[in-house]
Amino acid sequence: MLTSPRVSPARRRGGWTEFQRRYAPYIFISPFFLLFLVFGLFPILFNAYLSFQAWQPGTGLGEMEFVGLRNYTDNLTDPTFWQSLKNTAVLALLSGLPQHLLAIPLAFAAAGVLRRMQHLVTAVYFLPYITSIVAISVIFFTLFSWQYGVINAALNALSGLPLIGGLFPAEKINWLGQKEYVQPAIALVVIWRYVGWNMLLYLSGIQSIPRELYEAASVDGATGWQQFRFITLPLLRPIMFVAVTLSLIGGLQLFEEPFILTNGTGGAGQAGLTTIMYMYRTYANYSDAGVAAAMSWLLFLVIGGLTLVNNRLFGRSGLAGRD
Amino acid sequence: MRPILALTLALSASTLGMAAAQGKTITVSAFPDLDSVIKAALPGFKKLYPNVTVRVNSLAYADHHTAMTTALSTGRGAGDVIAVDFGYIGRFAEGNGLVDLRAAPYNAGQYRSQFVAYTYPQATAPDGRMVAMPTDIGPGSMFYRSDMLSKAGVKPAELNRSWESYIAAGRKVVAANPGSFLIPDAGQAAQIILRTGLKSGEGLFFDKAGKVLVSPANPRFVRAFTIAKQIRDAGLDARAGGAFSPEWTTAFQKGNLATEFSGAWLVGHMQNWLAKDFSGKWGAQNLPGGTYASWGGSFYAIPQQSQNKAEAWALIQYLTTNRAQQVLAFKTTGAFPALKAASSDAVFTQGVPYLGGQKARVLWRDAAARIQPIDVNRLDPVAEQIVNDALNTVLDGSKDIRTALAEAQTLITRRAR
């Protein structure tokens, strides 16, 4: 091929074309790798290095001291770390499960009954996902307010109604100031925010299911519920696997909502203190960068382990079950 | 034409170069409202040092301190003078990022007697290095709604005689003003009690030797927790958590608070936005039980990485030790001067219009003179967090005081190895 007459003049003109052909693609693609090296790989490696050092940020890089595995053992013997892990798990479950239980029927409805308004419905449900988290949390903060919040005002008004009034509390509930209510309050905000995102995932999944299946089912006399139960749900499994995995990872990294709703304190009884929040606190308030770095790796192990379990339980049957 | 142009360019370049050699530009990193104090000081500083140009870089409070932490750890980007809030001074004193101002050529020790006594220890690291100069302070004060008090027939002196009388009189005030609260959060009382009556050599949570003081056997902690619990149980607090929380702000704006403990600087917030409609209805008194405490304060430091340390020190000296400048700073933002001489200015004996013409600044000046320095420990932020968590479990009734303090002691001791 190199001896072909069409190539040889180019070769004679020097290495320029050769250079273009061989190396230019690398130059064009290099911005990604440079950015990845600087903002992706380097922080990860630095964080790994840091997790074996004792270091107060602000003292200068020269002040690091190698401490072996001490940062890891410190975390593993820290009751607050375990409590934060437990909080994170509870919050991930409390906010993760309802997201999917709501999003699947919603997506099914949007694809079917609400077909003509599908875009509107999707847009409305997706809006919270793209709204600034700070704005969301500030608004919910006001809604949840113990003395002046709309939620308590509404509940109190409802409790004054005849017959059903007994179902609602007459006393104001200190949503963000009482241990029992902190986690449900945070979970509610998270659910509200991510239902639209999951709905969109499921909607695209539903739309990829061949229509003939539904037509055939209708001909056979299957009801709407039967179609949902025996066609939609089984064929949605691959998408469910993706959506659940994303929720799992996102839920275990929960930070903004609890941080802002509890003013960064973790709330009453520290019930809203997630592991990422505790990591941030260890770094920013306690100036203990090494312990915080080790904590991030421990959380990584937890997330990795749970994702693997999810993959084995759900992924295998979900992805392989298509045949 | 061409050579002439080139010649002119070369000439102007050389004059510019000479100007640069004569004059120096220094950078100050600060946060609001301290940046407006520095900007107000620049014309006066320029008269003394015409060759020094000052550039002020201002970031939001938290962003500024995060940026400075990064700059100090990496050794670049901090500027020549940095403003440091009280809450960060202990952390910034760690390591060798900041210049020791006690040493020559700064010799900051010579000014010590000119400043409010407790400020110098705040800026001094455990190893004796002094890392910053104090500029403003926040002497603690009890603000009260005079109209609510008179409705209940309670005199301000009854509120601040002791913590017990504060609670007793507070019950009457809340009873006479339905829907009101005595205090935003019961925990505030504990914070004040924890910070007063310390023995010499005792820090808040650790003694000089680094031993943990938090314990169910320490009367200071037991009393702080007990008083806070009494306030909560009597239903006197709005459970607003920390200052500037939405619950706190709303309570102020709706006029539902009868008292609040804070630094003297709170009046500025109250008259500008927090309680605009209640001008003339608030008054100031000392803290209950003859206690004196400080709420914050700001400092200026020189990073080791600065290339213009002499000019930076000149500016800091001007900002902190120049009486006229400290008075101007007080007039600019209302932050109380750390320089004692400044508080003898006539403006301090004038009435405060928002407080119904009360001469409250005299009160604060006296309070500032009585505040005791508190030794700081590297692990104070950790201990403070753990003690606050313990206090909250006591307040919400899930733990008794002894158990909560014993657990806090264990948790802090674990960290303080």
Verbal overview:
- Chain A has 323 residues and is mainly α.
- Chain A has helices at residues 8-12, 16-50, 70-76, 79-111, 118-130, 133-144, 150-159, 179-207, 211-219, 224-235, 237-252, 256-261, 275-284, 289-320; strands at 53-54, 65-66.
- The longest helix of chain A is centred in the N-terminal third of the chain and has 35 residues, at 16-50.
- Chain B has 2 domains: 3-138 and 295-353, D-Maltodextrin-Binding Protein, domain 2 (3-Layer(aba) Sandwich), CATH 3.40.190.10; 140-294 and 364-416, Periplasmic binding protein-like II (D-Maltodextrin-Binding Protein, domain 2, 3-Layer(aba) Sandwich), CATH 3.40.190.
- In chain B, helix 6 (146-152) crosses helix 8 and helix 9 runs antiparallel to helix 10 (219-233).
- Mean pLDDT of chain B is 89; it is low at 1-21.
- The interface between A and B is large, with 33 and 38 residues.
Structural topology:
The complex is a heterodimer of chains A (323) and B (417).
Chain A: H1 8-12, H2 16-50, E1 53-54, E2 65-66, H3 70-76, H4 79-111, H5 118-130, H6 133-144, H7 150-159, H8 179-207, H9 211-219, H10 224-235, H11 237-252, H12 256-261, H13 275-284, H14 289-320
Antiparallel strand pairs in A: 1-2
Helix pairs in contact in A: 3-14, 4-8, 4-11, 4-13, 5-8, 8-11, 11-14, 13-14
Chain B: H1 2-22, E1 24-30, H2 34-48, E2 52-58, H3 61-74, E3 81-85, H4 86-93, H5 119-122, E4 133-145, H6 146-152, H7 156-160, H8 163-176, H9 187-194, H10 219-233, H11 246-253, E5 259-263, H12 266-274, E6 282-285, E7 294-301, H13 309-321, H14 323-333, E8 336-337, H15 360-370, H16 380-395, H17 401-415
Parallel strand pairs in B: 1-2, 1-3
Antiparallel strand pairs in B: 3-7, 4-5, 4-6, 4-7, 4-8
Which tags fit this structure?
heterodimer; A: 323 residues; MetI-like fold; two-stranded antiparallel ribbon; 2 strands; B: alpha+beta; D-Maltodextrin-Binding Protein, domain 2; eight-stranded mixed β-sheet; 8 strands; globular; disordered N terminus; transport (chain B); sugar transport (chain B); signal (chain B)
